[in-house]
Amino acid sequence: MTKHIEVEPEVEFEDEFVTGLKKVFEEMIVFNQVLGLKITSLKSTQVRGRIDMKPDLVGHFSFNRLHGGVISAGLDAMGGLAVMAAIGARHMDETPLQRLHRFGKLGTIDLRVDYLRPGIGEYFELRAQVMRLGSRVASTRMEFLGADGKLLSTGSGAYIMS
């Protein structure tokens, strides 16, 4: 079966747009700050992020299982970021600031997470891409991977753009 993605082709974002989107995502969304979620790659067709486990009081990394709620929240945030990137690519005729203002009313309307393995590790990589970008609703697919590259969880989401 051929994979068909109904989004705009890859575009190159301006530094101003990338800097602004990182600021919104990493600094202005407080819950992403709490998670320690950082953007590692921002492309119009796929976004990537990372969550680092925090060291304990004596400087060792805790290898306890990452809570499913953290995994779910991370996947949801990355799905939303993928939609933001796809919207930004669709409206390249606008200024970076105009495109950044489009994200104020983006919201999750459906989220599914499949937990495949325990979330154990020093850090985690998250990936997301938009499968379909409509005029009001976007559909995404997300992945949550361990430091060794093993797939730990998958997700799919639907987001409303008003």
TrEMBL record:
It catalyses: a long-chain fatty acyl-CoA + H2O = a long-chain fatty acid + CoA + H(+); a medium-chain fatty acyl-CoA + H2O = a medium-chain fatty acid + CoA + H(+); a fatty acyl-CoA + H2O = a fatty acid + CoA + H(+). One of its GO terms (molecular function) is fatty acyl-CoA hydrolase activity. Gene3D superfamilies: Hotdog Thioesterase. Residues 64-151 form the Thioesterase domain. Keywords: Hydrolase. Its EC number is 3.1.2.20. It comes from the Bacteria. It is an enzyme of class 3 (hydrolase). Belongs to the YigI thioesterase family. This is Medium/long-chain acyl-CoA thioesterase YigI. It comes from Albidiferax ferrireducens (strain ATCC BAA-621 / DSM 15236 / T118) (Rhodoferax ferrireducens). The lineage of its organism: Bacteria, Pseudomonadati, Pseudomonadota, Betaproteobacteria, Burkholderiales.
